[in-house]
Design brief:
With 141 residues, this protein is an alpha+beta fold. The chain has one domain: Cytidine Deaminase, domain 2. Helices cover 43% and strands 16% of the residues. It has 6 helices and 4 strands. Strands 2-1-3-4 form a 4-stranded mixed sheet, sandwiched between helices. Strand 3, helix 4 and strand 4 form a beta-alpha-beta unit. The protein is globular.
């Protein structure tokens, strides 16, 4: 990791500390252009906003999708204090961002939580294939 990347990652950690000081979970993220310019940054506000989706990674993925053209997004890096959760990872895939650099892995984070973190929700499926296919068929062509 370059010294410039370490500086950006440390800023993400500072945003996590600020989120925690504001009464939220300790997570922070920023988006950086290829030259290291910070384009946007945010911290977790899930408690103060009463919104379980107010993770900084998700908020910045939305910002990128709304404000960056696809070529710029592809060249943009997210620096984040902790590896994005599944919800945020899905949003990041759809946002078109080029890469993510994180400080703490999801496994390391869960080791710090009593009980090891969130438990998966049971899922069933697939079912009603023909009906579901009819709703989607042709949309992506």
């Amino acid at each position: 990791m370059t010294p410039a990347a370490e500086t950006l990652l440390r800023r993400a950690i500072e945003l996590a500390v600020a989120a925690r000081a504001a009464g939220n979970p300790p997570f922070g993220s920023l988006l950086a252009a290829p030259d290291g310019t910070v384009l946007a940054e945010d911290g977790n506000t899930s408690l103060t906003d009463n919104d379980i989706t107010a993770h900084p990674e998700l908020k910045l993925a939305r910002w990128a999708a709304a404000n960056l053209d696809p070529e710029t997004a592809k060249q943009t890096t997210m620096y984040t204090s902790t590896q994005p959760c599944g919800m945020c990872a899905g949003a990041l895939e759809r946002s078109g961002l080029g890469r993510v650099v994180y400080a703490l892995s999801g496994e390391q984070l869960n080791a710090l939580k009593p009980g090891g973190g969130f438990q998966p929700v049971a899922q069933e499926g697939p079912a009603l294939y023909d009906e579901a296919k009819a709703a989607v068929d042709g949309y992506y062509t």
